[in-house]
Design brief:
This protein is an alpha+beta fold.
């Protein structure tokens, strides 16, 4: 006898909800996070919350062996997902079970879990890997510096793929525990607080912790023989600086600059608000590069930054990034002005504080030193293109935009914006247009035309009415939309100009 089953509508709905998603509902995560400048950077389908890296490094051979445990949350139903890594993988586990994996291209690690992963699920991924970072090239370049006594990972916009698997884009920030075993007599430097160190059987393990969200390119590792200084700020923040034992003639100038880190950070708190992280410091390894980098809590400095003597201006630049670039990071790499324009302007403010030239005098000189036909003015700091991401215009024209803003809205609103922005977007990401909107909200003034002129329009922005007329004094009405000189005669070069110019190699990022 055929029986007809009648199911009440509510029960039918619950039965439908109980039916598991079919295989067709699970799809691979994207192999890029969606950044037009670097389409292969980062990955889609999940968000990382924490990296636990347990590493062993052999300075003599450059062999790095690692086990990375990654905690993440899925953002879609995933049949597989990618991580970015250039080293050789031996095993992957997802939620404790062995997962299939393969590599594609130079850095894509494709992982297929034993069972598909549902959306909004917390997952753990364990990757065992090894290799010699100095032998890895991605896109024809390297982020790994081989030194006489070890190696260093520090580069922008990518460096993680040379030493740990990650979702390698600033949009996916996470906290970090980094534990590194090295031979006795060698140190391992990383971000955050040194939680502990212990020695056994001829090796020492250093355990570092960064407890605030950190972009993967801001994670750093330096292994070598260092002289280390420690202290605490007036607020109790631990300060740790490290200097290679082989800096030669640059050693004294490097120390004379970086040992002022606490002082500079204290001053920057007055400009940008409370320091956003759990540690402070800097390190100078024995590398041949010329740039510096805002690696979170502990900036990287090349010895060449100090070839002409002490230069606190570069310390100001990299520490300013702790607010503008590290705590508030780019949404996409086209938003690089949110990092670099502000770090350069902080150098102008430091000059003003030191009595070596005001920000306006530096703006005047910068504007006057570039003719209208200079290709410098064709670079758009608000969207410079990947080929010009670290062009000097992003820094100098970007700082001019801020001086123009200051002149337009006045010091009270301007400095309220500088201090309020890092709080508004703390530990997150932001776009250039977010800053424009925020500045308009705080000042109550329309500012789109000003920012278009200084950040987006190719060509040298027009001088103010006062400057065009050669009026030596600025009036309030003549200040609008201009960071340019208010006089016809060429401005005198400020005393700080040379030291600031010496830091221009901070945006010459090696072979990248």
């Amino acid at each position: 006898m055929h029986r007809r089953l009648v199911v009440p509508s509510a029960l039918a709905a619950s039965l439908l909800l109980a039916i598991p998603a079919s295989a067709a509902d699970y799809v691979p995560g994207a192999s890029g996070i969606g950044d037009p400048y670097y389409p292969s950077s980062g990955n889609g389908g999940y968000d990382v919350s924490h990296y636990d890296l347990r590493l062993t490094y052999q300075p003599a051979t450059d062999l790095l062996e690692g086990t990375a445990t990654i905690l993440a949350t899925t953002k879609q139903n995933l049949s597989r997902f990618n991580l970015d890594l250039g080293l050789t993988v031996s095993e992957v586990r997802v939620n404790g079970r062995k997962a299939a994996f393969t590599t594609r291209g130079e850095q894509e690690l494709e992982i297929t879990p034993a069972t598909p992963l549902e959306k909004n699920r917390t997952i753990s991924v364990v990757v065992r890997y090894a290799g010699k970072p100095s032998e890895v090239k991605i896109g024809g370049w390297t982020a790994w510096h081989r030194t006489p006594d070890g190696g260093v990972a520090a580069q922008e916009p990518d460096s993680a793929a040379w030493w740990f698997p990650s979702n390698d884009h600033p949009l996916d920030k996470a906290t970090y525990d980094v534990s590194v075993s090295v031979p006795d007599g060698t140190q391992a430097i990383s971000n955050g607080v040194l939680q502990s160190q212990s020695s056994r059987l001829g090796r020492t393990r250093f355990n570092w912790r960064s407890d605030k969200p950190q972009a993967s390119y801001l994670a750093t590792l330096a292994v070598g023989r260092f002289d280390i200084t420690t202290d605490r700020t007036a607020n109790g923040l631990p300060v740790l600086n490290a200097y290679s034992k082989d800096l030669g003639d640059n050693a004294g100038a490097a120390r004379a600059s970086i040992e002022r880190t606490g002082e500079v950070a204290e001053w920057l708190e007055g400009v940008f608000g409370p320091y956003p992280f759990n540690a402070l410091g800097g390190y100078v390894p024995n590398v041949t590069s010329g740039y510096a980098l805002e690696t979170q809590t502990r900036p990287f400095y090349s010895p060449r930054q100090f070839a002409n003597g002490a230069n606190v201006s570069v310390v100001v630049h990299e520490l300013a990034h702790q607010w503008y670039g590290d705590s508030v990071s780019v949404d996409r790499w086209k938003d690089i002005w949110v990092n670099e324009g502000f770090a350069r302007y902080s150098q102008w403010l430091w000059s003003e504080k030191e009595g070596e030239g005001t920000a306006q005098e530096l703006a005047d000189y910068t504007y006057a030193s570039r003719g209208a036909d200079d290709p410098f003015w064709t670079v758009k700091p608000g969207d410079p293109g990947p080929e010009n991401q670290f062009h000097s215009a992003v820094y100098d024209r970007g700082a001019l935009a801020l001086q123009a803003l200051r002149n337009e809205i006045g010091d009270e609103d301007f400095f309220a914006i500088l201090k309020g922005w890092p709080t508004e977007f703390a530990y997150g990401n932001a776009k250039v247009k977010d800053f424009v909107t925020y500045a308009e909200r705080v000042s109550g003034e329309p500012l789109a035309a000003l920012f278009d002129s200084w950040l987006y329009e190719p060509g040298k922005p027009a001088a103010s009415t006062a400057a065009a007329a050669g009026v030596p004094e600025r009036s309030a009405g003549a200040q609008a939309r201009s960071a340019a000189p208010a006089r016809a005669v060429p401005p005198v070069r400020p005393k700080s100009w040379k030291k600031i110019a010496e830091t221009n190699t901070i945006h010459q990022h090696g072979d990248h």
